[in-house]
Amino acid sequence: MIRLILAAAAVLIAALAGYVGYRSWTFTPPAPRDAPAIPDTRAYEIDISAAAMHLAEAIQFRTITLMDEEEDTGAFEDLHAWMQARYPAFHEVARRETVNDLSLLYTWPGADAAQPPIVLLAHQDVVPVPDDTRAAWGVDPFAGIIEQDAVWGRGAMDDKGSLVALLEAAEFLAARGWRPERTIIFAFGHDEEIGGPRGAARMAALLAQRGVRAWFVLDEGMAAIDPHPITGAPVAMIGLSERGAGIMRVRAVSQPGHASMPERETAVSLLAEAVDRIHAMPIERRLEGGPAIDMMRALGPELGVMDRVALANEWMFGPIIHERFSANTAAAALLGTTVAPTVIRGGDHAGILPGEAIALINFRIHPRDHADDLMQRAQNAMSGMEGVTLEWDSPPLAASPVSSATSASYALIAGVSRAVLPQAPVAPGLVLAGTDARHYAGMAENVYRYQPILLSPEDLDMPHGVNERMTLDNFERMIRFYIGIMETGAAP
Ligand SMILES: [Zn+2]
Question: Which structural domain, as residue segments, surrounds residue 263?
């Protein structure tokens, strides 16, 4: 009998090992359809010093996002006039429209109108330079200084780098007499930094109203990072989706009065308990059901054997994987919704019981989760408590749909990235912040967020931070990348 049990156990272990081994062995990215032939744009003569000068000029227009329509729009108008003067060949071939006065929509018509267009995004607006950070800048943030092989200033990376690189690429192709087979649309918003309500949202609606259905949309949002937290080496990450967001307002009420005669629970103690329960409520955290699993598959060849075995068998090694991911906050956010209590307000006198206390909890919503469901789970967590109400502070924003990592357009972006940045294997990713791209979700099956700029983890603080700059290497790579995207993506 014992022998029989041992034999059965041995068979079971062998089967399990075989299954784990098989999953590990087959844990590779599926081959993309129609991987395109990418021409070597490195052969093209790009005048990088002239292009850098142009980026420096663009930085000098203080296109800080306008908070209301009464504000002076002069900086944006000056930038528009500069674009027209600086990029004549492009303006010769493309139709220019303004949307809500300050956003720019360019259509470069393709020879074959039946082919769905490519939509390329960038934004003109920049965040301000707060007075208390000005001293930490090594240079004047709006002077457009070129030094140490970089163009310095507010917007150099976010997002005038993209804006100017797109224009440089289009000008380069237009001046050579190249013409697209499929239409290329450029949409340059003017209020991305406040969510794009008057820029991107309006342009996307206009295109939808015209019946435009894009082949794909490409925006900023992710880049190549070195070292990547999982592989320890450079990885170019193409954003397939961006997280949603919601602010949950927690309100607790109780009898106001004097603190010498308190009820068992006060508004403050109730609120503390409620916040704690919401913060601790179980959130699903997995590789599957979002871009994380696609990222891991794409990185499979870069991983050691043990990592590969573990990642391919999340059903068995889940806890180890999650432990490893949670050591890095960006990696942890890939696995599930994050919940961060940020504001708490109660009484303002130590001797008085307040009638109410309020907290705000910041949810960043993973593509797997829905705001309604998160609210329901938070409500459930309140069971047995009285005097606590929950609501979304404003309508929550859903995560954007997850674009395909096996489409022909993904293969195009990945292929051109490999051509200009051969040292970085390409993998899909999840954008942790927000971009204008979310407004275009209904217009194309696939919306990607990627710039082929190689950054260190510290560089990621530059957008919105101090000493924002674009290295000439990265800038040149970006120009070649957009040339490759247009030339290959809109080839006859
Ligand atoms: Zn941006």
Answer: 241-392
